[in-house]
Amino acid sequence: MIRAFGVLLGAALLLAAGVWLSLRAYEAPGPSAEPHVVVVPRASLDEVAALLAQEGIVGNAMALRLAGLATRGQGASKAGEFAFPARASLRQVLHVLRAGRAVQHRLTIPEGLTSAQIALLFDRAQALDGAPVVPAEGMLLPETYAYERGTSRATVAERGAKAMERALDRAWAARIPASAPLASPQEALVLASIVERETGRPEERPRVAAVFLNRLRRGMKLQSDPTVVYGASGGLGVLDHGITRAELDSDNPYNTYRNPGLPPGPISMPGLAALTAVTQPLPVDDLFFVADGTGGHLFARTEQEHARNVARWRDIERQRAAKPLSD
């Protein structure tokens, strides 16, 4: 009787030791000294374990397979691109595989880019898939879009287009009487795209918008340089030279020095601030603005004031041209 009890006690101790060792191995830090991102395919646990051992996430593929079988009631592993923390234990590795929280990539669309420029961003975006996309000009909201590896470019572009539709609807619904020269949300979008390219200073946008709205109200040409650049560049939005007299005199439909009213379509992707600026402009009487040499603009209500501001800007340009380049 005593001998049988001793045998049972010994077996229990061995079992307890085995459980303790198993739990210790289950919680022990893994071999990877740094966080690691791995694309896990849709495969068996054996294949996934072999991959993670090869990538240095786990030290022993067999240990991961056994741990996975022992805890299979906690759920099945998923496929995707996953981030494993440094020194991840078997428990942590299995949690990552079962939770299925894929790595989020991000594509940032800055305000004021043209459709052609944004198409290049989509083309170069890491982890996006599918055919190239060229979004409709003006119809993609500048924003940062998160996506998982393998998401199609068309899917992200569609999200951006829907976001712009919602933003434009909200801006139009909140418009004030000062935006009266604009007859439709599309016209607001066109003007916002011009305002976006005219100034990079957020505080100036409502005032720049007011200038253009005042000019539209009086039947004056907008005379916006970015519209000329857009037309002359074939929609690229940039030139490798300053605007020429021939470009200012061209009959391109986007040339607002020659053609009255708004151009036939947007010239960039405006952001939320530009949309708000054209639907809620400042209550000012300004009709002109010109660069002030610091990245901002000088505004004027009369041609005389504007002429003085232009002369000041020309002086700044001459001084810059005369200043020798530093080494």
Please give a quick description of this structure.
The chain has 327 residues and is mainly alpha-helical. The chain contains twelve helices and six strands.
Residue stretches low in confidence (pLDDT < 50, at least 5 long) are: 5-21
Binned, the helix content reads 40-55%
What's the number of structural domains? 3
- Report strand order across the widest sheet: 1-2
Largest sheet: 2 strands, antiparallel
Order of helices and strands: HEHHEHEHEHHHHHHEEH
Number of helices: 12
Structural class: mainly alpha
Task: Count every beta strand, where a strand is a DSSP E run of 2 or more residues.
Answer: 6
Choose one word for the global shape. elongated
Beta fraction: 5-15%
Question: What gap, in angstroms, lies between the N and C termini?
Answer: 98 Å
Evaluate the radius of gyration.
31 Å
Compute the average pLDDT: 89
Kindly describe this structure.
The chain is mostly helical and 327 residues long. It has 3 domains: 30-102, Dna Ligase, domain 1, CATH 3.30.1490; 105-163, no CATH class; 176-322, no CATH class. Helix content is 48%, strand content 8%. The strands form 3 sheets. A two-stranded antiparallel ribbon has the order 1-2. It has a two-stranded antiparallel ribbon with strand order 3-4. The termini are far apart.
